[in-house]
Amino acid sequence: MLCSLLFLTILFLACINLSWNFFIPITCKAQTNEKAVALSFDDGPAAWTNQILDTLKQYNVPATFFCIGKNISGNEQTLIRINAEGHLIGNHSYSHHFWFDMLSSQKMLADMQLMSKEAVAITGLEPLLFRPPYGVMNPNLARAIKKGQFMPISWSIRSFDTTIKDKQKLLSRIITKVKPGDIILLHDSMEITATILPELIQQLMSKGYKIGRLDKMLNINAYA
Ligand SMILES: [Zn+2]
């Protein structure tokens, strides 16, 4: 009894701690001593994506946008812009459904492939990088990722930009933690993220960090 409780606890912790690599190897940072980090934005294309793209352009900084397939409709030009301005498009599922983690691996894969189909139709690019919705990994998702030949990417710094309301608190949460090779999780669906981005970039740069593109930092292909 105690043993099975312990096992369930470990299983639960493994599901929420992606870096444990319990089910499938998942990349959460680049192995480097060079002062370089990567920015990633989840849940777009969304209300603040274009403002974020303006800031990235101003500072000549690349990023990866893990897009939700269903958000592409009506935001096709934003998706095209992401690619045209030198950023990467990653797959963050089609539905981002609240119960995504409860789906069978076939249904998960169908959902992920639907997002890829949207991206291909609009940009001609089929994203290989996949970020699990809600950051949760489980055995069904591990199977879907393997079968779809996606490369799972998580993060090493979670900004908590969806919950922190104070700009300085959000900035210092990231800046005080940053280390070489970090992948920083942000959301282009959040106004606060668009607001702090210029200062975040400036502070990273003043600490001597270069902001790199994920595929170059990890030496991988972003598209099939
Ligand atoms: Zn998400």
Task: Describe what this molecule looks like in 3D.
By secondary structure, the chain is of the alpha/beta class. It has one domain: Glycoside hydrolase/deacetylase (TIM Barrel). Helix content is 42%, strand content 12%. It is built from eight helices and eight strands; from the N terminus they run H-E-H-E-H-E-H-E-H-E-E-H-E-H-E-H. It has helices at 2-16, 49-59, 76-84, 105-123, 139-148, 167-175, 191-206, 214-218; strands at residues 36-42, 64-67, 88-91, 129-130, 151-152, 157-158, 183-187, 210-211. Strands 1, 2, 3, 6, 7 and 8 form a six-stranded parallel sheet that branches. Strands 4-5 form a two-stranded parallel ribbon. The chain is globular. The model has no long low-confidence stretch (mean pLDDT 93). Zinc ion (ZN) binds at residues 42-43, 92, 96, 133.
Please specify the SSE layout and strand pairing.
Elements: H1 2-16, E1 36-42, H2 49-59, E2 64-67, H3 76-84, E3 88-91, H4 105-123, E4 129-130, H5 139-148, E5 151-152, E6 157-158, H6 167-175, E7 183-187, H7 191-206, E8 210-211, H8 214-218
Parallel strand pairs: 1-2, 1-7, 1-8, 2-3, 4-5, 6-7
The chain binds zinc ion.
